[in-house]
Design goal:
The protein has about 475 residues and is of the alpha/beta class. It has helices spanning about 1-20, 30-35, 40-50, 95-105, 120-130, 145-155, 170-185, 200-215, 225-230, 235-245, 325-340, 370-375, 385-395, 425-430, 440-450, 450-465, and strands at about 55-60, 70-75, 85-90, 110-115, 135-140, 190-195, 220, 260, 265-270, 300-305, 310-315, 320-325, 345-350, 355-365, 400-410, 410-420. Helix content is about 40%, strand content about 20%. It has a five-stranded parallel beta sheet, with helices on both faces. β10 (about 300-305) and β11 (about 310-315) form a beta hairpin. α6 packs antiparallel against α7 (about 170-185), α7 (about 170-185) crosses α8 (about 200-215) and α12 (about 370-375) runs antiparallel to α13. The longest helix has 20 residues, at about 170-185. The chain is globular.
Length: about 475
């Protein structure tokens, strides 16, 4: 019987080798779905292979004249699975500690960082991530992509969340998240992770983006895991963890506030800003002068548009400052507006999760209302938001011309505007000439507009007379 047993195993191994000769790997779940594993053998197999993701497993029942049932477990490889995760990495205290925490949990971590126009020493961040233990770090320059595919559509829509906020952080998250998913797919990562808390909007925005573009991805959000937030209930605990694990940080135990910076804006929140009854410290607006300290001489600019997008900006007081590249136009306008104190706001906004929060923004500046709601709440890649972006683009097809503005002491004043395709007709609207218009036509228009008002007055009179 020993000879029969060995002979059977050899034949089965040979058949398996032929069957799988063009396949690099076969997962355990795949074997289950293909019914290569007999039900009676699953209980034997699952405990043995529960920590393995790749390999070739075949459990089959073979009948011999002297052996009623023979269960064969053939393992072509015993390589344990690699739990690979792409972490949205900022280089700050939180994500640096999360990077180390994930490594200690057994994950192979690929750090991903997007350059969306923030002030950052990317070389230093790269060295830091690798020193902590990241398998690799991917830093992607996304400034042009962020401007053309996210900022311009938002500005064309005129979107303002709650009539104040120009969505600088909200639209950066889908831009960053989309590239993070691309990196995850390229690196064969099963997981993505981020450092957003459970109280804010960013976790929602990141994860909605990830699920929209990679539905099967697994997301690790440490700040929503009880194990993690019990271990790190405060900033001091993160600093202690960093010290214990030789994580280089430049931070104090008393963080004054949190900063998020990108091409479109700088936002500040938390810390000393959480009390809306207190004015913010002057140093919160790092890139924007206090209007009281702004120059006493105004800056006069001419901005030319085509299809709703700025295509040229010229400083009328210094024509050497003339830019036509989209990114340079945007960066120049940010710079000169900041000098003149333009773009500060201090608001208490309603987060999507249901909380109110105080936010300070330095903005680097009714489809728009709906668009702003979708973008703020993380639905950039939803079908309705895609539809709105197409509508907005159509609405801007003939938006072209020149606008001249004056920046002075925190204000932006329009001096003049002109367009070759404007529907403004000076002759038609002028009080000094009749133009192509019959004034008596207004009689019928007014009567139609007043119809419901007159009816309302009639019904109200009947009600009052019956009282």
């Amino acid at each position: 019987m020993n000879m029969i047993w060995k002979f059977g195993i050899l034949i089965l191994m040979k058949l398996l080798q032929v069957h799988l000769k063009d396949q690099a790997s076969f997962s355990y779940n795949s074997c289950l779905s293909k019914k290569l594993i007999q039900p009676k053998a699953q209980k034997l197999c699952e405990p043995f292979f529960k920590d393995y993701n790749y390999g070739v497993f075949l459990i089959n029942r073979v009948s011999f004249s002297s052996v009623r049932h023979l269960i064969l477990i053939i393992t072509m490889t015993d390589t344990p699975s690699i739990m690979r995760v792409v972490l949205a990495y900022s280089g700050g205290l939180d994500t640096s500690c999360i990077l180390k925490w994930l490594i200690n949990k057994g994950y192979e971590v690929i750090a991903y960082m997007a350059d969306v126009g923030q002030e950052e020493d990317f070389h230093q961040v790269r060295e830091k991530a690798l020193k902590i233990g990241a398998k690799k770090i991917v830093i992607v320059d996304q400034k042009k992509e962020f401007l053309e595919e996210f900022i311009w559509p938002t500005l064309k829509s005129g979107a303002l969340y709650e009539d104040r906020y120009l969505l600088g952080t909200a639209i950066a998250r889908p831009c960053i998240g989309r590239k993070m998913i691309e990196v995850a797919k390229e690196e064969g990562a099963q997981y993505v992770a981020h450092g957003a808390t459970g109280k804010g909007n960013d976790g929602i925005r990141f994860e909605l983006t990830c699920y929209a573009l990679f539905p099967k991805v697994k997301i690790i959000a440490p700040w929503r895991l009880k194990e993690f937030y019990d271990r790190f209930p405060g900033r001091q605990h993160l600093l202690e963890y960093a010290s214990q694990n030789n994580i280089p940080v430049i931070a104090s135990s008393k963080a004054s506030y949190s900063i998020d910076d990108n091409l479109m804006h700088t936002s500040m929140e938390s810390g000393i800003l959480e009390d809306p009854s207190k004015p913010p410290p002057e140093d919160t607006h790092r890139l924007c002068n206090n209007p009281f300290n702004a120059p006493d001489v105004a800056a006069r600019l001419e901005i030319e548009f085509a299809k709703g997008i700025p295509i040229r900006v010229t400083n009328l007081d210094n024509t050497t400052e003339n830019y036509e590249d989209g990114l340079k136009i945007f960066q120049y306008l940010n710079h000169i507006a900041g000098i003149h104190g333009v773009g500060r706001i201090d608001i208490v906004e309603n987060r999507h999760i249901g909380m109110k929060s105080r936010e300070l923004y330095r903005i680097k500046r009714d489809l728009g209302a709906r668009f702003s709601e979708l973008a703020y709440n993380g639905f950039w890649f939803s079908p309705e938001c895609e539809y709105l972006r197409k509508c907005i683009n159509l609405s801007q097809e003939n938006v072209e011309g020149v606008v001249r503005v004056m920046l002075y002491k925190g204000c932006c004043h329009i001096m003049s505007r002109e367009s070759p395709v404007s529907v403004y007709n000076q002759s038609l609207v002028s009080m000094d000439e009749k133009g192509d218009y019959e004034p008596s036509d207004a009689d019928g228009f007014i009567k139609i507009r007043a119809l419901r008002l007159r009816e309302y007055s009639r019904v109200r009179g009947q009600i009052e007379n019956n009282l």
